[in-house]
Amino acid sequence: MRLFLLAATAIAITPASAQADDVPLSPIGLPFQPGAPRAVAADHPLYHRIALDPVADMPNVVGASATGGIMGAAKRSSFEKALRETLEKLNLLAPSESEAKVRLSPRWINMEAPFKISFSSRAIVRMGWSLKRIDNGQPIFDRDISTAAESKGGSGSERAIGVGRVALMTNIASAMRCIDLAAYGQAPQDCALTPDFTYKAPIYRFMWVP
């Protein structure tokens, strides 16, 4: 007899099933409360005006188990790629460095995503976001943003990875929406958004086959 491992996955982010590491890091098209980031129009002050710095102080892998037994939630390179793609889709990224008028400097603070034997997982991501004019260094936006995600049920290891990625994605979404508002002097003191969707980790079952 042969032993097969079957996985049943449910994720409310997209209609299709997905493993934890398939959870997108870019928030484009996903719902958040009190509002999701939106593509800006050509008359927006930041339309195609932002140059992006690398994320300062971010480890190569975040959300990894201290023992190394659990795969990390995301690589730094994947997070930076998602951030750049998000800026581009929101019409905020400058086509070239020479055309940029402001510079966005993200800074990694920390991530709390402990793996524990339980039926629920929670992850918290804290990042600093600074937007300054290139010509004179005048600050336009400067906030530390803390975002969280949680989930219940399913595989514990997959759940820990999935909620970590949702918390990362939500931090990007929060920063993008606040930067949009900051261009008009309307950024709230607390920029954190809340995901208006849920992540369900896969459920693994064993089946004996003759």
Précis, in short:
This protein has two helices and ten strands.
Question: How would you describe the overall organization of this protein?
Answer:
The protein is an alpha+beta fold and 210 residues long. It has one domain: Lipoprotein like domain (Double Stranded RNA Binding Domain), CATH 3.30.160.150. 20% of the residues lie in helices and 34% in strands. The chain has 2 helices and 10 strands, in the order βββββαβββαββ. Strands 3-6-7-8 form a 4-stranded mixed beta sheet. It has a two-stranded antiparallel ribbon with strand order 1-10. Strand 6 and strand 7 form a beta hairpin. 37% of the residues are buried.
Question: Layout of SSEs?
Answer:
Blueprint: E1 2-11, E2 32-33, E3 50-52, E4 61-62, E5 74-75, H1 76-89, E6 102-112, E7 120-133, E8 139-152, H2 156-182, E9 194-195, E10 199-209
Parallel strand pairs: 3-6
Antiparallel strand pairs: 1-10, 2-9, 4-5, 6-7, 7-8
